[in-house]
Amino acid sequence: MLTREYISPLSGRPYYRNVGLIKVYDRNDRRYSVGEIILERFDEQNFQYIIKPYWNSVDNLPRGLFQGIPGIDMSLRKDRYYRVNITPAFIGMRTPSESREDVMQLMASVGLDYYDRFEWLLRSETKCGDDNLLVERKPEGHRTVRNLKNIDDLKLNPDDTVVINDLSDFHGGNRNIVRDIYYVLQTGAKIFIESENRYLRDTEVKSMLYLLNNMLVGMEKNAMNNRRLGRETAKAAGRYTGRKPIKIDTELLRQVAEEFKNKSIIEKEAMEKLSLRSRSTFYRKLKTVKKQSDVF
Fold first, then answer.
1. Based on the number of CB atoms within 10 Å of its own CB, is 182 exposed (0-12), middle (13-18) or buried (19 or more)?
2. What is the DSSP code string of 247-287?
3. For 155-181, what is each residue's pLDDT tens digit?
4. Which of 17-26, 68-77, 205-214, 236-245 shows the lowest per-residue confidence on average (mean pLDDT)?
5. Do the beta carbons of residue 79 and residue 85 sit within 8 Å?
6. What domains, with CATH codes, occur in the chain?
7. Backbone region of residue 157 per phi and psi (left: phi > 0; alpha: psi in -120 to 50; beta: other values)
8. Based on the number of CB atoms within 10 Å of its own CB, is 130 exposed (0-12), middle (13-18) or buried (19 or more)?
9. What is the pTM of this model?
């Protein structure tokens, strides 16, 4: 258990400050901000990390998507969690320690010629196999977004403003429209309705998120039922052969597994090298390497 000296904020003004957004990502790699993590440095080599959960966003996430931020007790519902002169577990599990033999090579891989594990994390956006969280640098200033044709490419953040005229600004079929509206609202971005000359109120956002989440759950259940019925029909007709396992060259898999273990590549790069799109498939393949060798 941490003593008071490690959780009591430092006084005074820091000479250095760096801010990242903690994001949870779903199986489609849509990212939702669940908080900020801030590094502040003071004189006499003192420093502190501050973790600020975005409780409004956290409370409206789909059930099961977010399991908390490792290393802090979110049941306390604090506005800020401090870690003074120690590295939080959340950072430690995602970044190379200073004692690693190849640590400067890893720093250089993101353009650093000095050791800074937090800056390395912001530049590499490293994912950790134990959870579905990552850290992105918090942008400076505010963005105003009007074109919603490629929503996933926007990487919306809580300080952004999305301007719409009405719901016709969202494109695609009903399921995609529901998913896209839910995503925009859940990112925390402010919604300005041009036709009404006003921002969407917090109470409206909360109600819409609840409704859209229930709609998405129902749509997913229907899709699963349709797939199940399709399989059963195919089986009855003798056409169903099951999913074929993805074949990957054994030596390539071993090489990528070792690079990923040593953090010389991040999860995204490893999956690209193996031509995999599914994280669950990626980690299943790693398990096969673990069983067959001493890579992990």
1. buried
2. P--HHHHHHHHHHHHTTSS-HHHHHHHTT---HHHHHHHHH
3. 899 999 999 988 788 888 888 888 899
4. 236-245
5. no
6. 4-137 (no CATH), 144-236 (3.40.50), 250-292 (no CATH)
7. beta
8. exposed
9. 0.75
